[in-house]
Amino acid sequence: MSTAGPPPGVPDAMTTLVTGVDSSTQSCKVLTVDAETGRIAHQGHAPHPEGTAVDPEHWWKALESAAGPDLMRTQALAVAAQQHGMVALDADNRPVHDALLWNDTRSAPQADRLRARFGPEHWARGMGVVPVASFTVTKLAWLAENHPELAARVERVILPHDWLSWKLRGMLGDPVTDRSDASGTGYFSVPENRYRTAELAHAFGRVPELPRVLGPAEAAGTTARGTLMAPGCGDNAGAALGLGLRPGEVVVSIGTSCTVFTSAPRPVIDPTGAIAGFADAQGASLPLLATLNGARVVSTTADLLGVDLARLDHLASSAARDADGLIFVPYLDGERTPNLPFASGSLAGVTRRSLTPENLARAAVLGVLNGLAEALNAFRGQGIPVHRVLLIGGGARSESLRRAAPDMLDAEVVVPAPREYVALGAARQAAWTVAGTQEPPQWEREMDAVYRQTDAPAWAGTVHEQFLELRNHHYGL
């Protein structure tokens, strides 16, 4: 799509403008685009506060700041947001507790008990997901167990994108959600396309009011200013829409966390819990594997070495291809896949030869790629084709990572032109909703670079085997 980011201008009077919002962990991004071409007319950005528990009002203030007056001249609007966040509201629709975000791991014990109570097979086949601390149902279990007086006040539970969409509608009517976001709660069944509440009742003690689940491109109402609201979606489903995924393409997104996902015609059932069988925003499935440790592994290593990211990238490019045997298992914030919420990182293969700034920088890059290689192998094990990897996110800017990725991931790697793909996907959904067509509009996709495997990629397999041996031994896997 032709969205090279021209400076905002006055659009043609005949142009239909639509807006997509990406309310992520760290910030809010807003894109207003031409509904026919996807060309950007306006973009804005505002930060979110740090932390894994946040007052939702911060999201609203960031959205107002990022959007500015632009929402007044758009014909349709959709919100995509971080998944899983627990927004538990009382009878006055006020949060009883700060929203617990996806990366808040305090509910790990509750996740363990829910897996044990019903069994991984039950969860995978019934819901499409096996609970980990990220999922909403575990956070509600934590609230009920640790703050029963707050849990008793909860009337309804919604998700971050549901809450923002409802605020845009003036909190009139009831909140709604979509399949993609609902599929990350642990109480919506992707195979059955409905809520399953017995597990939620066990976790929370009862079933609070839940938002109605809209279909793809089904209107959610209008804003206070009369703008048509699309259903919105989870952030990864938004990115899939924004990228216009094709068969055999798998997205690898390297941001605060890493996600690996693709579009699939049928639900994926993985009792190991490694692959979450989420829904996408077009009526199909979005198998996804997520890890907690992404770009921050590289930025933390840069801080340790006292260099900026550009210098770290240069160091990593100057190192031996295998970092002279230096192996970094980068579980700096615990880990979600594998399920090690309280793990710490480890460094092995330390010798006088290997312990150099260049090799440490390279080991950090390879540490991230090793986790992603394991994710893609899990996809292949489920029969999901991996012909091409689309590399996106802030971590995709690293040239050393781009060049190592084809060998490490065993696939051609394509880097799409830099875009805010989650916000762009939300805008595409808004354009789809206002058009009322069977399929979303077809916007052209631009590629920034293509990277292919080297003639001798065996080094990458050796590095990955050493990584797995260290990881499995150190963490008892």
Please, could you describe this protein's structure?
This protein has 477 residues and is an alpha/beta fold. It has a domain at 17-235: 2-Layer Sandwich (Nucleotidyltransferase, domain 5). The protein has helices spanning 57-67, 108-118, 120-126, 136-146, 148-151, 160-168, 179-182, 198-204, 235-243, 295-305, 309-318, 357-381, 399-409, 421-435, 458-475, and strands spanning 17-23, 27-34, 40-47, 53-54, 76-81, 87-89, 99-100, 156-158, 176-178, 188-189, 194-195, 212-214, 221-222, 228-229, 233-234, 249-254, 258-261, 276-279, 285-291, 327-329, 346-348, 388-392, 412-416, 447-451. Strands 1, 2, 3, 5, 13, 14 and 15 form a seven-stranded mixed beta sheet that branches. The chain has a seven-stranded mixed beta sheet with strand order 18-19-17-16-22-23-24, with helices on both faces. Helix 10 (295-305) packs antiparallel against helix 12 (357-381). The protein is globular, with a radius of gyration of 22 Å. The model is unreliable at 1-10 (pLDDT under 50).
Integer average pLDDT: 93
CATH architecture of the domain at 17-235, please? 2-Layer Sandwich
What is the number of E strands? 24
CATH topology of the domain at 17-235: Nucleotidyltransferase, domain 5
Report the CATH C-level class of the domain at 17-235.
Answer: Alpha Beta
- CATH superfamily assignment of the domain at 17-235? ATPase, nucleotide binding domain
Specify the number of helices.
Answer: 15
Give the termini distance in whole angstroms.
44 Å
